[in-house]
Amino acid sequence: MDLDERHRMLDALRTSQPIFRDENSKTFVLSRYADIRALLTDPGMLRNADLAEEGSLVRSFKPADMNRPGDRDAGMGWLDAPDHARVRGPIQLALNRRVAALRPAVEAIVAARLDALGNRFDAVEDFAVPIPIAVIGKLLGVDTGDMDRFRAWSEAAIGVFAPNPTVQERAATKAASEAISDYLDVSMALRRKAPRDDLVSDLIAAQAEGVPLSDAEIRVNCMNLLLGGNVTTADLIASAIWLLLAHPDQLARLRSDPALIGGMVEEVLRLVPPGEGTQRIAPRDMTIAGCPVHKSQVVAGLVDSANRDPGIFPDPHRFDIGRRGAAHLSFGGGAHVCIGQHLARLEAQVAVGSIVARFPELRLAEPDARPVWREVPFFRGLATLPVLR
Q1: pLDDT by residue (tens digit) across 198-234?
Q2: Which end of the chain is less crowded, N or C, counting CB atoms within 10 A of the terminal residue's CB?
Q3: Which domains are seen in the chain, by residue range?
């Protein structure tokens, strides 16, 4: 759906039906900021899809065929207390430490991509997509000689998010996922013998010191960091470039005051969140947004609608890189707030700040063309963005 068309629909929905029941997916859907924020920050709401109502979309979405037996329930995104805190805590600690020291590596990766660009290029495929894959590879300690095949696996495994994949596409995605799992198994074994300067070594060391993390939990969450972080961060970078080029006044503001880069990234996250929704499961019979919800029923929040709620964000459809006020909900909230948010912000700030500084004449190659979005449910990302430098 076109972005403007979607937001006309969401504007009407917030007024007429701020909560409604979608019987096809067996999901209650929220569209107002206050209701969605309350949903995300309620510590009692559940994430484990196996606890959801029979026949609900989220129950069928939990991937069973992409991982090995025993891996299905290791991802922290599907865990509830107390296992969620047990798994997330040490991974979050190790990841935050790594991200705090990662800027020079990100700057080098972005500079190398900029060096390789011609006068006309696709800001999605040639710039936004390769950066997160290289950054996650660096974070996980992928050897330089393995980066080409690691990149190929990563791009194939991202097919798990594709709608209506063919049999061949599903097979390719599964093979790539298994190859990454094998690679991470070997990495863990090697780091037990000889630790390196990477996240996998950090987690193996924590495990050896008594932190209760299984090998499956390390492997699956490293893979989820790779898959989830690649898609959403690439979409964030590309959307930022598109919005800036489509709004020359805001691009000029950024060029005159590079310190606005952080606010610019937050405004892009608000206007075009890479993930358009998130869900929780009711732990008991309860009332949400004035509506009775029964135990095990699924409640989803339309994050992109919350981010443009006029009761929270004045002139909500305007792109303003100096905007102040309430925080967007694009990284979720509560215990399940996005674990990679600091990494995504770092990559986007460096990538977009660098391309704007390097190419002062950067512009859309087809300024009158409507943006072409990938057809991936629940995600918002450009399929292509031809630019000239």
Answers
A1: 999 999 999 999 999 999 999 999 988 888 888 899 9
A2: N
A3: 3-61+77-388 (1.10.630.10)
